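Illustration: DNA 5'-3' helicase.
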Amino acid sequence: MAEAVAEAMEGGRHLLVQAGTGTGKSLAYLVPSLLHRDRVVVATATLALQHQLVERDLPRLVEAVKDSGVDTSYAVLKGRSNYACLHRIREGVPDDQGTLEVELPTGSLGKKVLELREWAEEQSEDGGTGERDNAPRHTDKEWRQVSVNHRECLGAAKCPFGQECFAERAKEKAQKSHLIVTNHSLLAIDAIEGVPMIPEYDVVVIDEAHELTTRVTQAATDELWAAEVERAARRSQRHVDGDQANDLADAADALRAAINDARPGRFDRIPEDLADALVLVRDAARACVSAYPKADQSGKDDDGDAGLQQAKGAVQEVFATAERMAADLDSDVLWMSEGTERMPPRLCVAPLQVWGPMRDKLLSDKTVVFTSATLMLGGDFNSIATSVGLKPSEREAEHTPDTMPWRGIDVGSPFDYGRQAILYVARHLPQPGRDGMAPAMLDEIVDLVDAANGRTLGLFSSRRAAEAAAEVVRERLPHLTTLAQGDAQLPELAAQFVGDPHTCLFGTLSLWQGLDVPGDTCQLVLIDRIPFPRPDDPLLSARQKAADQAGGNGFMQVAATHAALLLAQGAGRLIRTTTDRGVVAVLDPRLATARYGGFLKSSLPPMWTTTDPAVARQALARLAAT
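Result:
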């Protein structure tokens, strides 16, 4: 793999590398990255991998080659809101009128914000990074009290604390480094949105590349709701002399009324009242931004007024989102989310596809190495290659002005899946329905968990299904400890799961990719159903419809590919070392009976397969007895 990565970097040819867990793939791209003549960016999807690179792999590699003359400088770079803002901590947070308020909020929020402020000041004194990941445990709401986004930032030249700024220091370090570690979202904003965030580079290595299109989509998704427009109007009132702030507040009322009249879900055509309200918000926000003063009476540049800058930034955000939504472009998908007790209904807009912008703005300009343990779906690279902007016909092609040649290699795995793992498909069970979990499926779960004597990671399609299964297992197998996602924070649940082998942990999507539990802790991975997207998923349903209209097979290109990726990630939780053993049990008979079952199974590791429940239970019982 290292040789293939080096060859791709030198030859300027894109590369897809499937490298299973345990192959040491991070070293296989970090070594050629340090040896490459120009700066290289490594982009990851998860904080866990970023920490592994920065805390473990890179320090070891630097130590190993310290006397070789290789430039081993590296830096971590994240979006501005990931760093504490010293101006907000010392000067205060804008209230609803845009006035800076240094006083702490009341209650537990105030206590946590004080703790975060003290931590940030310690970081500043000790030369720390001020990164959110290193902060005391907190919520998003608490972190917003000590951070700013890029629109709210005064800029280093105008901020009295610009010299100490954590985000600016991270940028300066990146400018001087040969290797930059960042995340998929920041890469997308820099390369695809065109907002300069990363110093000039030659090559990007994208690890966890199976996540890339989702992260790029998230980075290009905007939301708008009435309360946000209303708050931007209130914050503008002390900075705008005319009626523009009041007009924006009236537009917020019109938007609220239109949202209340609309039905949640995707809009093929925007309802007339909603379209009119979006135009009203767009025009009122534009007028409000224009009404902000450029200088105060003393002639001082008001860009140095943090309250004004942040209030103006909020209106600019509203304008940009309303303008995009009102444009109703074919290249975007617009929908309204369901409201909850804590969250009002909101409008969302996302790109219909991201492969075009990725091809035009990233692949055409940089050499890209994509790597993951899950890049081959249905037995080849075509699905993933297409999703990131590469054409299957360009594989191993010659360089021409119109082609982007790429190479795909599978470097295998150190694991012997045929001996270490069994794939059990419960062919005898009824197909999953919409009415919750069938009694036969719950019986099957209890029998398998009982045979394994705990040691079970249950991956479910919904929180309701996970909780229902957990309740039945607790009732029928009271001698085991059964945990459900939501009982505590995920790190706490994972620690309990690892600490006691007679434990089951049941949860949803975040467990599929966020948990690494090697050893005897996990000998049974339960998957309740093939993880197809929900039929009412606004974005994926729009992508499936667009694929059908283009003459393709939308179900296979979108729904089956989505399911194959998640299924492979879920099954991948079982075997994490060469000594692990166990069973992946898929309780959805369609994996064995449906026409698309072959495509899904060929996306999984090559495990020994059975549909006989007795074989699965006996194997689990033997493992539990050793």
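Reading the tokens back as a structure: The radius of gyration is 26 Å.
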